[in-house]
Task: inverse folding
């Protein structure tokens, strides 16, 4: 399919855009010029949404943020060549609905279109989604959408799952094989074990064996257990009985040893018993003496305590009386101080009254002076305001005159200048239309003449070809014509041949001259059209200037009219000024009369002296007031203290209280002496008690030692399973009984050992029977020979299956190795973009670090495609996003996109949609970018849509395109009342 171009985009309600905004595109370049925030990026997002139905990576899904505020719907339509179109209808909260020829534009790449457009068509203003900023996995997935090795990557992505399934199948077969081999070996082992278990022993009845074991069991335990008569059950019963007998035999042996040990200690036990009885009599005598002493000490302690309590009460009363005596002395002092303060307060009250009268007089005099001064100041202020208003009214005269001038200026422009300019513009517009019509006719005539020349040329091509061949093979110094044999100079001969060729077709020669005349005429028409357009622009400038003058005059007029309320013309404004002046004059006269009627204003010195006098009186009053308050506070405190002291003393007299204190001192001294005598008697008795207690402690220690030794002998006696108290007779009876039981145990153990051998014979016989049953169960309906053959054949079948699947695994591994090898070749093909990319970078980026070496490295890692954009720095590969500036990153992404767009033609729409690609560039740097875009338009038939906020860069790019005759348009985005619209410049 041949290349197609985008002709028009229609946008309704996208962000700030108005309804039904249309932008016509050309085959060359379309430039969108607007300040930041106007809506340049919105146009690119609208194009992407109409092509893919999604803006998930930018605005989420669904892209509700793209719908204009206050609206619920968004419609976008793209019209291409050959009546192709792409359309999207999006309603708030729903999924976008696509219509149109998306399949014809993207064919089998329609699912990958959102990713591929980012590689070859769209350059976002935001760098977040750029390929050069991508992570390794994300970049690899994006390149995989180009379908260079997409099929191989899909195969390789299944490598792990396929390998896992094959390995699982192999493991399953090997497990089955191992189980069957184990089953075969087990069958062979069962046969061999059965043959070994066959014997010809004579078996003793199980009942007889049970009786022998039971006899031994009853030696230890009296009950008879219920045991099944089988060799296995009897073996367990035999083992249990033998363990019990051996355990009981060992216990009996240990008991015999203990009896021997106790026999030597029985004599000591008897002697200790007699000693303990004598010591217990000594303890009883000691306890009687101790109790008597304790009673005497207790009585003395009670007397001492009683004397101490009596003494303490007397000391307490003495202290209380002393405190009361002290309070009585303080009370006399406070009463004297109270009387003195009462006298001082009376003197202060007389002086305070005199000072208050002086303050009242001075305050009244000061208030009178200040009131009079304030009245004079208010009148003066009102008079000044009236005079100011008169001055303001006089200043309205110049404004009224300016009003008249502005009205006249607006009238002249609207009635004379503007109609003349509009008439001239209409004449020039008519002339421009005529010239454009003549241009179209002249162009049509030139095209028709060229077609006629081409037809005549076809007829004379053969003759001209022959003559050309003759002239081509002439030597440089030949002067003789090979056709007519006329002699010429070598250079004249070539001229004559050329003239002859032209004369061979005289009609074409004439038409060529006619075309030249038509082209000259076309050039004159172009010059004439340029002059007419220049004149129209000049008149438009004058009209704009006159309208701006009117707007400025009206603006000034609106400001002036605000100074003349309710005035519709200059005459009424003049009357307004005169009425203001008359009103202010009358008000001034009234205020002057009021001022004359007042008393003379007191001077500042008089007021200051009066204020100082008043302040002195106020200070004196405050001083006496504070002193009175202090004295009253003292009186209050003294009253409270006297009242408290009177309550505490309770009307006691100081002399009587002193006598009572002296009597208490004599009683305390007598009590102290009595306490001392009792304490000495108590100490003497305490010493006697301590001597008895020491003696008792020694007796207790001795008896504890004897009883401890006795307890040890008794404990050992009980541990030897002997009854009652330790005695030689009981010990001899127990020893004989132990020896008898040990003999019975030895005989029973011997009988059980013989019975065990008989049970071994029974176990072998039962083993033969059980093994034979297992073999028969395994064989089923087959004989033993047939079963063995069946098991061998089954293992051989599984072994063949394992060999076959191992061969398949080897084939699969070989295939996957070839796929990996092919992917390496594909990665080399992907990396081949580095050479054209580097050439483009050399034209844009000054830093050679990015323009030399391979930036893109593509490979497969863990069965997934990955790609990395990095450059060498200090011997290490560093991602370009970590070291490149914003301008360099923009150039890296742009040149990568240009190289990819040139190499991969996955859609017939070859276009570059660049959202402000030079936002970080100065004009010199931007020029190199514009040169690249110009070459892509002229040499490769790319369509370019570029946005910018810089009018200087937009005009510079336009001049470059116009100099090479490349079609271009500039649209300026403007914000109006209904939203943003596009205006063709």
Result:
């Amino acid at each position: 399919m041949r290349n197609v171009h985008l002709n028009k985009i229609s946008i309704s309600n996208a962000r700030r855009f108005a309804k039904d905004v249309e932008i016509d595109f050309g085959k060359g370049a379309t430039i969108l010029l607007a300040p930041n925030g106007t809506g340049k990026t919105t146009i690119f997002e609208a194009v992407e949404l109409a092509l893919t139905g999604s803006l998930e990576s930018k605005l989420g899904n669904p892209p509700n943020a793209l719908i204009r505020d206050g609206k619920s719907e968004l419609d976008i339509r793209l019209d291409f060549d050959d009546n192709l179109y792409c359309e999207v209808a999006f309603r708030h909260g729903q999924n976008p609905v696509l219509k149109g020829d998306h399949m014809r534009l993207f064919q089998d790449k329609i699912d990958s279109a959102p990713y591929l457009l980012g590689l070859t068509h769209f350059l976002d203003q935001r760098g977040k989604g750029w390929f050069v900023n991508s992570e390794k996995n994300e970049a690899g997935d994006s390149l995989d959408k180009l379908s260079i090795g997409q099929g191989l990557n899909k195969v390789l992505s299944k490598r792990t799952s396929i390998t896992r399934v094959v390995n699982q199948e192999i493991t399953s077969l090997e497990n089955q094989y191992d189980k069957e081999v184990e089953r075969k070996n087990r069958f062979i082992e069962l046969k061999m074990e059965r043959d070994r278990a066959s014997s010809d022993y004579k078996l003793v009845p199980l009942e007889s064996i049970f009786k022998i074991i039971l006899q031994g069991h009853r030696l230890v335990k009296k009950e008879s257990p219920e045991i099944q008569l089988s060799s296995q059950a009897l073996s367990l019963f035999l083992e249990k009985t033998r363990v019990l007998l051996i355990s009981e035999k060992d216990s009996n042996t240990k008991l015999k040893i203990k009896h021997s040990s106790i026999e030597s200690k029985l004599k000591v036990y008897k002697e200790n018993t007699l000693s303990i009885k004598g010591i217990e009599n000594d303890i009883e005598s000691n306890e009687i003496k101790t109790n008597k002493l304790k009673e005497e000490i207790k009585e003395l302690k009670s007397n001492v305590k009683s004397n101490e309590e009596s003494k303490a009460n007397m000391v307490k009363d003495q202290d209380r009386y002393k405190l009361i005596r002290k309070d009585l002395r303080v009370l006399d002092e406070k009463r004297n101080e109270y009387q003195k303060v009462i006298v001082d307060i009376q003197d202060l009250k007389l002086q305070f009254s005199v000072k208050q009268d002086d303050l009242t007089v001075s305050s009244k005099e000061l208030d009178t002076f200040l009131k009079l001064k304030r009245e004079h100041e208010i009148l003066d202020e009102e008079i000044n305001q009236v005079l100011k208003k008169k001055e303001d009214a006089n200043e309205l005269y110049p404004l009224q005159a300016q009003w008249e001038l502005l009205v006249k200026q607006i009238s002249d422009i609207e009635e004379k200048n503007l109609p003349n300019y509009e008439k001239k513009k209409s004449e020039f517009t008519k002339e421009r239309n005529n010239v454009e019509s003549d241009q179209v006719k002249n162009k049509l005539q030139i095209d028709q003449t060229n077609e006629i020349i081409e037809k005549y040329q076809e007829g004379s091509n053969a003759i001209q070809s022959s003559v050309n061949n003759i002239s081509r093979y002439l030597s440089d110094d030949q002067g003789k014509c090979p056709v007519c044999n006329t002699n010429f100079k070598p250079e004249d001969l070539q001229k004559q041949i050329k003239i002859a060729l032209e004369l061979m077709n005289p009609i074409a020669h004439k038409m060529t001259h006619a075309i030249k005349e038509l082209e000259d005429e076309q050039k004159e028409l172009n010059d004439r059209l340029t002059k007419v357009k220049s004149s129209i622009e000049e008149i438009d400038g004058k009209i704009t200037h006159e309208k701006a003058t009117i707007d400025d005059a009206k603006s000034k007029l609106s400001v002036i009219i605000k100074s003349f309320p309710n005035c519709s013309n200059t005459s009424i404004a003049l009357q307004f000024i005169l009425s203001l002046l008359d009103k202010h004059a009358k008000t001034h006269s009234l205020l002057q009369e009021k001022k004359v009627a007042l008393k003379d204003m007191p001077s500042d010195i008089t007021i200051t002296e009066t204020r100082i006098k008043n302040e002195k009186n106020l200070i004196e009053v405050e001083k006496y007031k504070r002193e009175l308050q202090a004295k009253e506070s003292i009186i209050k405190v003294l009253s409270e203290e006297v009242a408290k002291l009177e309550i505490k003393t309770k009307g006691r007299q100081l002399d009587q209280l002193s006598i009572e204190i002296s009597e208490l001192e004599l009683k305390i001294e007598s009590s102290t002496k009595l306490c001392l005598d009792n304490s000495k008697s108590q100490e003497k008795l305490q010493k006697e008690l301590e001597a008895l207690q020491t003696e008792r402690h020694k007796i207790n220690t001795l008896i504890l030692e004897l009883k401890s030794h006795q307890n040890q002998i008794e404990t050992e006696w009980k541990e030897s399973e002997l009854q009652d108290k330790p005695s030689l007779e009981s010990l001899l009876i127990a020893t004989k009984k132990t020896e008898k039981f040990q003999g019975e145990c030895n005989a029973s153990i011997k009988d059980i050992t013989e019975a065990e051998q008989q049970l071994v014979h029974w176990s072998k016989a039962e083993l033969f029977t059980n093994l034979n049953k297992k073999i028969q169960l395994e064989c089923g309906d087959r004989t033993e020979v047939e079963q063995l053959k069946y098991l061998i054949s089954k293992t051989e079948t599984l072994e063949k299956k394992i060999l076959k699947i191992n061969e398949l695994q080897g084939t699969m591994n070989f295939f996957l190795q070839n796929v990996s090898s092919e992917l390496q070749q594909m990665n080399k093909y992907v990396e081949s973009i580095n050479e054209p990319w580097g050439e483009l970078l050399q034209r844009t980026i000054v830093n050679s670090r990015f323009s030399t070496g391979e930036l893109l490295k593509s490979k497969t890692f863990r069965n997934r495609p990955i790609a990395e954009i990095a450059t060498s720095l200090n011997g290490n590969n560093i991602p370009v996003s970590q070291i490149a500036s914003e301008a360099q990153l923009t150039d890296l992404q742009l040149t990568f996109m240009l190289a990819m767009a040139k190499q991969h033609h996955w859609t017939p729409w070859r276009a570059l949609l660049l959202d402000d690609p030079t936002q970080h560039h100065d004009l010199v740097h931007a020029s190199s970018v514009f040169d690249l875009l110009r070459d892509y338009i002229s040499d490769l038939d790319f369509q370019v849509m570029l946005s910018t906020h810089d009018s200087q860069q937009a005009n510079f790019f336009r001049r470059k395109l116009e100099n090479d005759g490349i079609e271009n348009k500039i649209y300026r985005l403007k914000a109006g009342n209904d939203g943003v619209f596009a205006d063709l410049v």
Q: What stands out?
A: Confidence is low (pLDDT under 50) at residues 145-152. Residues 266-394 form the longest helix (129 residues). The two ends are 34 Å apart (CA to CA).
